[in-house]
Amino acid sequence: MEVLFLTYGSVLTQPVLQSQVLTFIRSCPPGVRFTLVSCEWFPVYRARRTEIERLRQDLAASQVRLWLLPKILPPRNQRTWQFGLDLLFLTLVTFWLLLRYRLRVVHARGYEPALVCSVVAPLFGARWMFDARGVLPEELAESKALPDTSMLFRVWKSIEGWLLRRAPAVSVVSHVFSRHFRALGRRGKVVVVPCCVDAHMFRFDLAARQQLRTQEGWTDRLVVVYSGSTNWYQEFGTCIQVFKHLSHLSPNALLLALVNDRPAEVEKTLGDSLPSGSFVVKSLVRAEVPRYLCAADVALLLRSRSLVSQVACPVKFAEYLACGVPVVATPGIGDVSEIIRAQGLGVLLEGDWESCLRLLQQQLQDPTLKARCREYATRELTWSAHATTWLNEYARLAGEPPDETDTGAMPECD
Questions:
Q1: Count of CB atoms situated within 10 Å of the CB of 309
Q2: Which pTM does this prediction carry?
Q3: Measuring CA to CA, which residue among 198, 110, 210 is closest to residue 383?
Q4: What pLDDT was estimated at residue 79?
């Protein structure tokens, strides 16, 4: 079976796509061959041609054809004419690939590729899956503080409704997300595949933990880690406030901020809010992140109360657990918050923060806590647990019998 996999993001420079696209593709059996289309901002595309060719050769060894397309829309920009040209180019390339290789199954990751598929795929009798990783209309509106009546929001909500009516298959990252799409009128099947972790890369290593903590001088510190971007929905300011509360209970606490998104600004923000010596900012390549997560004792996962968070499944949740780190989270983050509550893998900040953090201190005395975090991640949040769900959707779209070993997806918490 051959599958065309489309994403508007970059598998070269975006860690989330490296973990959620490349790791998935590499985990698939040899009988499934992919043609992968990814997009990179043109200045980066031009400057990193050697890396692109190396990645292309690496994927070719796994029988994956890589088409990395240049795009002109810069990151964090929403200029309509630039986006329109990028979408037109993606449409033309999709048309050519479906014609050239006679591909009949397409995985569209995100709203933009799904919009392309809704127009192009029917011309060739191809069937496609709309893989929604978030609610794009709300993400655009909330990031720009636009009202629900804005033209941008209304256009993307109309496109969303069109995709839900037209898509032969739909995949989302949480059961909350599935219910949201059904409330919008989706009548067909919706599968749930959470953001998964590469458990071989992100794993608890006691020796590495002890070595790094000794090297950094953290042997007697309570290391509280924040990993990821500082986007508007991440509530980084709230993370600082939670850390202050935690440092009152544990004066030896240290905030470890692993950020590649404006690290100098993050360091200044922390310096204005916290005493010197109570925080460390690191900007790491992806391969170094697991070692630092292993060195941590607690992780922070705080997000704004919005639909964007309510349907989400943050990648770093699985990465934290895989490295044996319990999580302090806000309620209402997709299925994540209920997993933490039901499995006892950290605490939710409900009501009195001090009481919640005292409960966390009690949990940290449990010698089995790190092992339980790791065990849940490897059982429920890896591609070995979920790849079959997508493979069965591909088989259904291609008219082939599904794999009977499919377990469906992450179980829903009561």
A1: 25
A2: 0.92
A3: 198
A4: 67
